[in-house]
Protein backbone atom coordinates (compact mmCIF):
# COMPACT_ATOMS: atom_id res chain seq x y z
CA UNK A 1 0.00 0.00 0.00
CA UNK A 2 2.99 2.30 -0.03
CA UNK A 3 2.33 5.61 1.72
CA UNK A 4 -1.00 4.27 3.01
CA UNK A 5 0.56 1.38 4.93
CA UNK A 6 -0.64 2.70 8.31
CA UNK A 7 -4.42 2.84 8.70
CA UNK A 8 -6.50 4.14 11.63
CA UNK A 9 -9.98 2.99 12.64
CA UNK A 10 -12.26 5.72 14.02
CA UNK A 11 -15.50 4.64 15.73
CA UNK A 12 -18.02 7.46 16.18
CA UNK A 13 -21.12 6.67 18.20
CA UNK A 14 -23.58 9.53 17.64
CA UNK A 15 -27.21 10.31 18.22
CA UNK A 16 -28.33 9.29 14.72
CA UNK A 17 -25.89 6.51 13.79
CA UNK A 18 -22.84 4.48 14.72
CA UNK A 19 -20.04 4.95 12.21
CA UNK A 20 -16.75 3.25 11.49
CA UNK A 21 -14.28 5.10 9.27
CA UNK A 22 -10.78 4.03 8.30
CA UNK A 23 -8.27 6.80 7.53
CA UNK A 24 -4.78 6.66 6.10
CA UNK A 25 -1.85 8.70 7.40
CA UNK A 26 -2.71 11.61 5.06
CA UNK A 27 -6.24 11.90 6.47
CA UNK A 28 -7.98 10.32 3.46
CA UNK A 29 -10.86 7.90 4.03
CA UNK A 30 -10.05 4.34 2.96
CA UNK A 31 -13.35 2.75 4.08
CA UNK A 32 -16.50 3.75 5.92
CA UNK A 33 -19.76 2.28 7.15
CA UNK A 34 -22.70 3.58 9.16
CA UNK A 35 -25.57 1.87 10.96
CA UNK A 36 -28.60 4.01 11.97
CA UNK A 37 -29.66 3.99 15.62
CA UNK A 38 -32.97 4.99 17.14
CA UNK A 39 -33.86 7.41 19.92
CA UNK A 40 -36.92 7.08 22.14
CA UNK A 41 -38.89 9.85 23.85
CA UNK A 42 -41.04 7.83 26.27
CA UNK A 43 -42.24 10.87 28.21
CA UNK A 44 -41.70 14.64 28.32
CA UNK A 45 -38.08 15.48 29.19
CA UNK A 46 -37.03 11.84 28.62
CA UNK A 47 -34.63 10.94 25.81
CA UNK A 48 -33.27 7.40 25.68
CA UNK A 49 -31.39 4.94 23.51
CA UNK A 50 -31.10 1.16 23.70
CA UNK A 51 -27.60 0.23 25.00
CA UNK A 52 -27.59 -3.12 23.21
CA UNK A 53 -28.54 -1.48 19.91
CA UNK A 54 -25.57 0.87 20.21
CA UNK A 55 -23.16 -2.01 20.90
CA UNK A 56 -24.48 -4.10 18.00
CA UNK A 57 -24.51 -1.12 15.63
CA UNK A 58 -20.86 -0.36 16.37
CA UNK A 59 -19.89 -3.98 15.81
CA UNK A 60 -21.75 -4.14 12.51
CA UNK A 61 -20.33 -0.85 11.26
CA UNK A 62 -16.81 -1.95 12.18
CA UNK A 63 -17.17 -5.35 10.53
CA UNK A 64 -18.52 -3.70 7.37
CA UNK A 65 -15.67 -1.18 7.15
CA UNK A 66 -13.03 -3.86 7.57
CA UNK A 67 -14.74 -6.11 5.02
CA UNK A 68 -14.51 -3.25 2.50
CA UNK A 69 -10.75 -3.15 3.05
CA UNK A 70 -10.26 -6.85 2.56
CA UNK A 71 -6.65 -7.90 3.14
CA UNK A 72 -5.66 -4.25 3.65
CA UNK A 73 -7.45 -4.31 7.03
CA UNK A 74 -4.24 -5.87 8.35
CA UNK A 75 -2.65 -2.42 8.02
CA UNK A 76 -4.90 -0.95 10.74
CA UNK A 77 -2.50 -0.08 13.55
CA UNK A 78 -4.89 1.48 16.08
CA UNK A 79 -8.54 2.24 16.79
CA UNK A 80 -10.30 4.97 18.74
CA UNK A 81 -13.81 5.65 20.02
CA UNK A 82 -15.70 8.95 20.22
CA UNK A 83 -19.09 9.25 21.92
CA UNK A 84 -21.64 11.82 23.02
CA UNK A 85 -20.20 13.08 26.27
CA UNK A 86 -23.06 13.54 28.72
CA UNK A 87 -24.93 10.29 27.97
CA UNK A 88 -24.90 7.86 30.90
CA UNK A 89 -25.89 4.25 31.52
CA UNK A 90 -25.84 1.72 34.40
CA UNK A 91 -24.76 -1.90 33.95
CA UNK A 92 -23.88 -5.10 35.79
CA UNK A 93 -20.10 -5.39 35.93
CA UNK A 94 -20.33 -9.19 36.31
CA UNK A 95 -22.53 -9.95 33.29
CA UNK A 96 -22.08 -6.76 31.27
CA UNK A 97 -25.86 -6.47 30.93
CA UNK A 98 -27.26 -2.94 30.83
CA UNK A 99 -29.58 -2.16 33.75
CA UNK A 100 -30.97 1.07 32.29
CA UNK A 101 -31.43 2.66 28.90
CA UNK A 102 -28.79 5.12 27.77
CA UNK A 103 -29.98 8.43 29.19
CA UNK A 104 -29.17 11.07 26.57
CA UNK A 105 -27.53 14.41 27.27
CA UNK A 106 -30.88 15.88 26.17
CA UNK A 107 -32.72 14.00 28.94
CA UNK A 108 -33.95 16.23 31.79
CA UNK A 109 -35.88 13.73 33.91
CA UNK A 110 -33.72 14.42 36.98
CA UNK A 111 -34.25 18.18 37.15
CA UNK A 112 -35.66 17.82 40.67
CA UNK A 113 -32.34 16.31 41.81
CA UNK A 114 -30.66 19.50 40.63
CA UNK A 115 -33.12 21.54 42.70
CA UNK A 116 -31.92 19.63 45.75
CA UNK A 117 -28.27 20.63 45.35
CA UNK A 118 -28.70 24.19 44.10
CA UNK A 119 -27.13 25.54 47.32
CA UNK A 120 -23.85 23.95 46.14
CA UNK A 121 -24.02 25.44 42.62
CA UNK A 122 -21.09 27.79 43.15
CA UNK A 123 -18.86 25.07 44.59
CA UNK A 124 -19.82 22.69 41.79
CA UNK A 125 -18.96 25.37 39.25
CA UNK A 126 -15.51 25.92 40.77
CA UNK A 127 -14.72 22.21 40.95
CA UNK A 128 -16.02 21.12 37.53
CA UNK A 129 -15.89 24.17 35.25
CA UNK A 130 -19.55 23.44 34.42
CA UNK A 131 -22.86 24.95 35.46
CA UNK A 132 -25.34 22.96 37.53
CA UNK A 133 -27.61 21.30 34.95
CA UNK A 134 -29.74 18.16 34.51
CA UNK A 135 -28.12 17.65 31.10
CA UNK A 136 -24.99 16.26 32.79
CA UNK A 137 -24.65 12.80 34.27
CA UNK A 138 -24.72 13.15 38.07
CA UNK A 139 -28.41 13.85 38.55
CA UNK A 140 -29.40 11.10 36.11
CA UNK A 141 -27.24 8.54 37.91
CA UNK A 142 -28.88 9.56 41.18
CA UNK A 143 -32.28 9.15 39.52
CA UNK A 144 -31.36 5.62 38.39
CA UNK A 145 -30.37 4.60 41.93
CA UNK A 146 -33.65 6.01 43.25
CA UNK A 147 -36.03 4.67 40.59
CA UNK A 148 -34.59 1.53 38.96
CA UNK A 149 -34.74 -1.51 41.29
CA UNK A 150 -32.15 -3.44 39.24
CA UNK A 151 -29.66 -0.63 39.78
CA UNK A 152 -30.32 -0.57 43.51
CA UNK A 153 -29.93 -4.35 43.73
CA UNK A 154 -26.67 -4.32 41.76
CA UNK A 155 -25.30 -1.60 44.04
CA UNK A 156 -26.19 -3.63 47.14
CA UNK A 157 -24.51 -6.70 45.62
CA UNK A 158 -21.43 -4.63 44.70
CA UNK A 159 -21.92 -5.48 41.02
CA UNK A 160 -22.95 -2.04 39.82
CA UNK A 161 -21.03 -0.07 37.22
CA UNK A 162 -22.25 3.30 36.00
CA UNK A 163 -21.01 6.41 34.26
CA UNK A 164 -20.48 7.79 30.77
CA UNK A 165 -21.71 5.81 27.77
CA UNK A 166 -18.08 5.70 26.57
CA UNK A 167 -17.15 3.47 29.52
CA UNK A 168 -20.01 1.06 28.89
CA UNK A 169 -19.08 0.73 25.22
CA UNK A 170 -15.44 0.02 26.12
CA UNK A 171 -16.61 -2.62 28.60
CA UNK A 172 -18.76 -4.33 25.98
CA UNK A 173 -16.52 -3.98 22.91
CA UNK A 174 -13.05 -4.76 24.25
CA UNK A 175 -11.77 -8.21 25.07
CA UNK A 176 -10.38 -7.10 28.45
CA UNK A 177 -13.69 -5.55 29.62
CA UNK A 178 -11.95 -2.54 31.18
CA UNK A 179 -13.68 -0.06 33.47
CA UNK A 180 -12.02 3.14 32.28
CA UNK A 181 -12.93 6.59 31.00
CA UNK A 182 -11.08 9.56 29.53
CA UNK A 183 -11.07 13.16 30.86
CA UNK A 184 -13.45 14.67 28.26
CA UNK A 185 -16.20 12.17 29.13
CA UNK A 186 -15.51 12.14 32.87
CA UNK A 187 -15.70 15.94 32.92
CA UNK A 188 -19.33 15.85 31.73
CA UNK A 189 -20.65 14.06 34.82
CA UNK A 190 -20.50 16.94 37.37
CA UNK A 191 -18.50 14.48 39.50
CA UNK A 192 -14.97 15.08 38.15
CA UNK A 193 -12.66 17.77 39.50
CA UNK A 194 -11.17 19.78 36.63
CA UNK A 195 -8.09 20.81 38.61
CA UNK A 196 -7.36 17.55 40.45
CA UNK A 197 -8.36 15.49 37.40
CA UNK A 198 -10.07 12.83 39.48
CA UNK A 199 -13.47 11.94 40.92
CA UNK A 200 -14.29 14.44 43.65
CA UNK A 201 -15.52 13.15 47.03
CA UNK A 202 -17.37 16.42 47.72
CA UNK A 203 -19.24 16.25 44.40
CA UNK A 204 -20.15 12.61 45.01
CA UNK A 205 -21.47 13.58 48.44
CA UNK A 206 -23.58 16.42 47.02
CA UNK A 207 -25.44 13.89 44.82
CA UNK A 208 -25.30 11.01 47.29
CA UNK A 209 -23.44 8.78 44.83
CA UNK A 210 -20.93 5.99 45.61
CA UNK A 211 -17.44 6.08 44.11
CA UNK A 212 -17.05 2.32 43.52
CA UNK A 213 -19.26 1.98 40.40
CA UNK A 214 -17.46 4.75 38.49
CA UNK A 215 -14.73 3.92 35.96
CA UNK A 216 -11.11 4.85 36.57
CA UNK A 217 -10.10 7.99 34.68
CA UNK A 218 -6.99 7.62 32.52
CA UNK A 219 -5.42 9.66 29.71
CA UNK A 220 -7.22 10.25 26.41
CA UNK A 221 -4.41 8.32 24.72
CA UNK A 222 -4.05 5.03 26.58
CA UNK A 223 -3.74 1.28 26.04
CA UNK A 224 -7.48 0.74 26.58
CA UNK A 225 -7.63 -2.82 25.30
CA UNK A 226 -8.22 -5.04 22.30
CA UNK A 227 -11.00 -4.69 19.74
CA UNK A 228 -11.57 -8.03 18.01
CA UNK A 229 -13.17 -7.68 14.58
CA UNK A 230 -13.39 -10.30 11.82
CA UNK A 231 -10.83 -12.45 13.70
CA UNK A 232 -8.45 -9.47 13.80
CA UNK A 233 -7.12 -7.88 17.00
CA UNK A 234 -6.82 -4.09 16.93
CA UNK A 235 -5.51 -2.05 19.89
CA UNK A 236 -7.88 0.71 20.95
CA UNK A 237 -5.67 3.62 22.04
CA UNK A 238 -7.86 6.76 22.09
CA UNK A 239 -11.14 7.43 23.92
CA UNK A 240 -12.66 10.91 23.68
CA UNK A 241 -15.91 12.87 23.58
CA UNK A 242 -17.33 13.74 20.19
CA UNK A 243 -16.91 17.51 20.47
CA UNK A 244 -13.40 17.16 21.86
CA UNK A 245 -12.50 14.93 18.89
CA UNK A 246 -13.94 17.49 16.46
CA UNK A 247 -11.43 20.00 17.78
CA UNK A 248 -8.69 17.96 16.06
CA UNK A 249 -10.54 17.45 12.79
CA UNK A 250 -8.08 19.57 10.83
CA UNK A 251 -4.89 18.97 12.77
CA UNK A 252 -3.85 20.25 16.20
CA UNK A 253 -6.15 23.14 17.26
CA UNK A 254 -4.84 26.67 16.77
CA UNK A 255 -4.95 29.54 19.24
CA UNK A 256 -6.99 32.47 17.98
CA UNK A 257 -9.37 30.10 16.20
CA UNK A 258 -12.87 29.34 17.43
CA UNK A 259 -14.20 25.95 16.35
CA UNK A 260 -17.95 25.59 15.86
CA UNK A 261 -19.40 22.11 15.32
CA UNK A 262 -23.01 22.18 14.12
CA UNK A 263 -24.85 18.92 14.71
CA UNK A 264 -27.77 18.00 16.97
CA UNK A 265 -26.50 20.86 19.12
CA UNK A 266 -24.08 23.61 18.17
CA UNK A 267 -20.85 23.66 20.17
CA UNK A 268 -18.38 26.52 20.18
CA UNK A 269 -14.84 25.82 21.43
CA UNK A 270 -11.91 28.14 22.01
CA UNK A 271 -8.78 26.07 22.72
CA UNK A 272 -6.02 26.82 25.19
CA UNK A 273 -2.97 25.00 26.52
CA UNK A 274 -3.78 26.19 30.05
CA UNK A 275 -6.87 26.09 32.21
CA UNK A 276 -9.10 29.02 31.15
CA UNK A 277 -10.71 31.31 33.70
CA UNK A 278 -14.28 30.69 34.81
CA UNK A 279 -16.71 32.95 33.03
CA UNK A 280 -20.13 32.70 31.43
CA UNK A 281 -19.05 29.69 29.35
CA UNK A 282 -17.91 26.20 30.32
CA UNK A 283 -14.28 25.34 31.02
CA UNK A 284 -13.21 21.77 30.33
CA UNK A 285 -10.31 19.48 29.51
CA UNK A 286 -10.73 18.22 25.97
CA UNK A 287 -7.63 16.05 25.65
CA UNK A 288 -4.77 14.79 27.82
CA UNK A 289 -1.84 12.50 27.22
CA UNK A 290 1.53 12.16 28.94
CA UNK A 291 2.91 15.23 27.15
CA UNK A 292 0.15 17.72 26.49
CA UNK A 293 -3.22 19.06 27.60
CA UNK A 294 -5.81 20.95 25.56
CA UNK A 295 -8.41 22.91 27.50
CA UNK A 296 -11.34 24.75 25.97
CA UNK A 297 -13.81 27.45 26.78
CA UNK A 298 -17.01 25.98 25.42
CA UNK A 299 -20.40 27.38 24.56
CA UNK A 300 -23.47 25.28 23.84
CA UNK A 301 -26.56 25.93 21.73
CA UNK A 302 -28.78 22.97 22.54
CA UNK A 303 -31.19 23.57 19.67
CA UNK A 304 -29.37 23.16 16.34
CA UNK A 305 -30.30 20.05 14.35
CA UNK A 306 -32.65 19.16 17.22
CA UNK A 307 -34.47 22.49 16.72
CA UNK A 308 -35.06 21.67 13.04
CA UNK A 309 -36.38 18.25 14.08
CA UNK A 310 -38.66 20.00 16.58
CA UNK A 311 -39.93 22.32 13.83
CA UNK A 312 -40.54 19.43 11.43
CA UNK A 313 -42.58 17.67 14.12
CA UNK A 314 -44.72 20.79 14.64
CA UNK A 315 -45.65 20.68 10.94
CA UNK A 316 -45.76 16.85 10.61
CA UNK A 317 -43.00 17.27 8.04
CA UNK A 318 -39.98 15.14 7.14
CA UNK A 319 -36.84 16.65 8.78
CA UNK A 320 -34.55 15.65 5.92
CA UNK A 321 -36.89 17.17 3.33
CA UNK A 322 -36.98 20.36 5.39
CA UNK A 323 -33.18 20.53 5.58
CA UNK A 324 -32.91 19.91 1.84
CA UNK A 325 -34.99 23.05 1.19
CA UNK A 326 -33.01 25.27 3.55
CA UNK A 327 -30.38 26.54 1.04
CA UNK A 328 -33.15 27.96 -1.16
CA UNK A 329 -35.13 29.35 1.77
CA UNK A 330 -32.10 31.03 3.33
CA UNK A 331 -31.44 32.76 0.03
CA UNK A 332 -34.99 33.79 -0.83
CA UNK A 333 -36.79 34.70 2.42
CA UNK A 334 -35.96 38.27 3.33
CA UNK A 335 -38.00 38.81 6.50
CA UNK A 336 -38.45 35.69 8.62
CA UNK A 337 -39.97 35.83 12.11
CA UNK A 338 -37.85 35.51 15.24
CA UNK A 339 -37.49 32.24 17.12
CA UNK A 340 -36.83 31.94 20.85
CA UNK A 341 -34.69 28.83 20.51
CA UNK A 342 -34.95 27.01 23.82
CA UNK A 343 -35.30 23.55 22.31
CA UNK A 344 -33.74 21.16 24.89
CA UNK A 345 -33.20 24.19 27.13
CA UNK A 346 -31.51 27.54 26.55
CA UNK A 347 -27.79 26.88 26.88
CA UNK A 348 -24.84 29.18 27.42
CA UNK A 349 -24.41 31.94 28.33
CA UNK A 350 -28.03 32.16 29.58
CA UNK A 351 -28.54 28.75 31.23
CA UNK A 352 -32.33 28.71 31.35
CA UNK A 353 -33.68 25.16 31.36
CA UNK A 354 -37.45 25.71 31.30
CA UNK A 355 -38.17 28.32 28.62
CA UNK A 356 -40.80 27.33 26.04
CA UNK A 357 -39.69 27.60 22.38
CA UNK A 358 -41.82 30.03 20.38
CA UNK A 359 -41.93 32.19 17.28
CA UNK A 360 -42.38 35.94 17.37
CA UNK A 361 -44.12 37.05 14.20
CA UNK A 362 -45.83 35.01 11.52
CA UNK A 363 -44.58 32.87 8.68
CA UNK A 364 -45.02 29.55 6.92
CA UNK A 365 -42.77 26.51 7.37
CA UNK A 366 -40.07 27.99 5.12
CA UNK A 367 -39.96 31.28 7.01
CA UNK A 368 -39.94 29.49 10.36
CA UNK A 369 -37.07 27.26 9.24
CA UNK A 370 -35.02 30.34 8.35
CA UNK A 371 -35.89 31.79 11.77
CA UNK A 372 -34.55 28.63 13.44
CA UNK A 373 -31.25 28.91 11.54
CA UNK A 374 -30.93 32.60 12.41
CA UNK A 375 -31.61 31.84 16.08
CA UNK A 376 -28.67 29.41 16.07
CA UNK A 377 -26.43 32.15 14.66
CA UNK A 378 -27.74 34.70 17.19
CA UNK A 379 -27.02 32.33 20.09
CA UNK A 380 -23.55 31.51 18.75
CA UNK A 381 -22.85 35.24 18.70
CA UNK A 382 -23.86 35.47 22.37
CA UNK A 383 -21.27 32.80 23.14
CA UNK A 384 -18.58 34.56 21.11
CA UNK A 385 -19.20 37.73 23.10
CA UNK A 386 -18.99 35.73 26.35
CA UNK A 387 -15.50 34.35 25.61
CA UNK A 388 -12.91 35.67 28.04
CA UNK A 389 -10.91 38.59 26.74
CA UNK A 390 -7.72 36.53 26.53
CA UNK A 391 -9.28 34.25 23.88
CA UNK A 392 -9.24 37.03 21.21
CA UNK A 393 -10.75 35.05 18.31
CA UNK A 394 -9.37 35.88 14.88
CA UNK A 395 -11.36 33.42 12.77
CA UNK A 396 -14.05 30.75 13.00
CA UNK A 397 -13.80 27.22 11.61
CA UNK A 398 -17.14 25.44 11.17
CA UNK A 399 -17.87 21.73 10.84
CA UNK A 400 -20.81 19.35 11.12
CA UNK A 401 -23.84 18.77 8.94
CA UNK A 402 -25.47 22.21 9.25
CA UNK A 403 -22.18 23.92 8.32
CA UNK A 404 -22.94 22.95 4.73
CA UNK A 405 -25.54 25.73 4.66
CA UNK A 406 -23.89 28.74 2.99
CA UNK A 407 -26.60 31.00 4.38
CA UNK A 408 -25.78 30.00 7.94
CA UNK A 409 -22.02 30.44 7.46
CA UNK A 410 -22.39 33.85 5.84
CA UNK A 411 -24.71 35.09 8.56
CA UNK A 412 -22.23 33.90 11.19
CA UNK A 413 -19.41 35.82 9.49
CA UNK A 414 -21.60 38.91 9.22
CA UNK A 415 -22.70 38.95 12.85
CA UNK A 416 -19.30 38.03 14.31
CA UNK A 417 -17.29 40.36 12.02
CA UNK A 418 -14.85 37.46 11.63
CA UNK A 419 -13.89 35.31 8.64
CA UNK A 420 -15.55 31.90 8.66
CA UNK A 421 -13.77 28.90 7.11
CA UNK A 422 -15.66 25.76 6.12
CA UNK A 423 -13.21 22.93 5.38
CA UNK A 424 -13.80 20.63 2.45
CA UNK A 425 -14.47 17.74 4.86
CA UNK A 426 -17.12 18.91 7.34
CA UNK A 427 -17.50 15.70 9.39
CA UNK A 428 -14.91 16.57 12.03
CA UNK A 429 -15.46 14.05 14.84
CA UNK A 430 -14.18 10.87 13.18
CA UNK A 431 -11.49 12.81 11.34
CA UNK A 432 -10.26 14.36 14.58
CA UNK A 433 -10.24 10.98 16.27
CA UNK A 434 -8.06 9.60 13.46
CA UNK A 435 -5.76 12.61 13.74
CA UNK A 436 -5.18 11.72 17.39
CA UNK A 437 -4.59 8.09 16.52
CA UNK A 438 -1.95 9.27 14.04
CA UNK A 439 -0.16 11.26 16.74
CA UNK A 440 -1.85 14.67 16.13
CA UNK A 441 -0.45 14.65 12.61
CA UNK A 442 -0.07 18.17 11.14
CA UNK A 443 -0.76 16.64 7.72
CA UNK A 444 -4.43 16.68 8.65
CA UNK A 445 -4.55 20.43 7.96
CA UNK A 446 -4.34 19.74 4.22
CA UNK A 447 -8.06 18.97 4.51
CA UNK A 448 -8.79 22.39 5.99
CA UNK A 449 -9.00 23.96 2.52
CA UNK A 450 -12.58 24.67 1.57
CA UNK A 451 -14.77 27.75 1.34
CA UNK A 452 -14.26 31.03 3.16
CA UNK A 453 -16.98 33.51 4.12
CA UNK A 454 -15.92 37.15 4.52
CA UNK A 455 -17.92 39.47 6.80
CA UNK A 456 -20.21 41.89 5.01
CA UNK A 457 -22.82 44.48 5.98
CA UNK A 458 -26.29 43.02 6.42
CA UNK A 459 -28.49 45.72 7.88
CA UNK A 460 -31.76 43.78 7.95
CA UNK A 461 -30.10 40.82 9.65
CA UNK A 462 -28.48 43.10 12.24
CA UNK A 463 -31.85 44.65 12.98
CA UNK A 464 -33.42 41.22 13.51
CA UNK A 465 -30.52 40.38 15.80
CA UNK A 466 -31.21 43.48 17.91
CA UNK A 467 -34.90 42.55 18.17
CA UNK A 468 -33.97 38.96 19.06
CA UNK A 469 -31.74 40.12 21.92
CA UNK A 470 -34.50 42.33 23.28
CA UNK A 471 -37.11 39.56 23.08
CA UNK A 472 -34.77 37.03 24.69
CA UNK A 473 -34.01 39.40 27.57
CA UNK A 474 -37.75 39.82 28.11
CA UNK A 475 -38.43 36.07 27.94
CA UNK A 476 -35.68 35.13 30.39
CA UNK A 477 -36.73 37.95 32.74
CA UNK A 478 -40.25 36.51 32.83
CA UNK A 479 -38.83 33.10 33.74
CA UNK A 480 -36.89 34.68 36.60
CA UNK A 481 -40.05 36.35 37.90
CA UNK A 482 -41.97 33.07 37.73
CA UNK A 483 -39.21 31.23 39.57
CA UNK A 484 -38.00 33.73 42.12
CA UNK A 485 -40.62 36.46 42.25
CA UNK A 486 -38.06 39.13 41.35
Supply the key terms.
Nucleotidyltransferase, domain 5; 2 domains; 6-stranded mixed β-sheet; 486 residues; alpha+beta
Q: Can you walk through the features of this model?
A:
The protein is an alpha+beta fold and 486 residues long. It has 2 domains: 2-240, Nucleotidyltransferase, domain 5, CATH 3.30.420; 251-486, Nucleotidyltransferase, domain 5 (2-Layer Sandwich). It contains 15 helices and 23 strands. The chain has helices at 51-69, 111-116, 121-128, 137-147, 149-156, 165-173, 183-186, 201-207, 242-246, 305-314, 319-332, 365-386, 406-416, 428-437, 459-484, and strands at 7-13, 17-24, 29-36, 48-49, 76-83, 88-92, 102-103, 160-164, 180-181, 192-193, 198-199, 216-217, 221-229, 232-241, 257-262, 266-272, 282-288, 293-301, 338-340, 358-360, 395-399, 420-423, 450-453. The strands form 7 sheets. A 7-stranded mixed beta sheet has the order 17-18-16-15-21-22-23. Strands 3-2-1-5-14-13 form a 6-stranded mixed beta sheet, with helices on both faces.
Work out the oligomeric state of the chains in this entry: single chain
Judged by helices, strands and strand pairing, the structural class is alpha+beta
Question: What integer is the average pLDDT?
Answer: 94
Shape: globular
CATH top level class name of the largest domain: Alpha Beta
Main sheet? 7 strands, mixed
Number of domains: 2
**Largest beta sheet: strand ordering:** 17-18-16-15-21-22-23
Count of helical regions? 15
Distance from N terminus to C terminus (CA atoms, Å) equals 68 Å
According to DSSP, the number of beta strands is 23
CATH homologous superfamily assignment of the largest domain: ATPase, nucleotide binding domain
The CATH topology annotation of the largest domain reads as Nucleotidyltransferase, domain 5
Helical residue percent? 25-40%
- Assign the CATH architecture of the largest domain: 2-Layer Sandwich
Rg from C-alpha positions?
22 Å
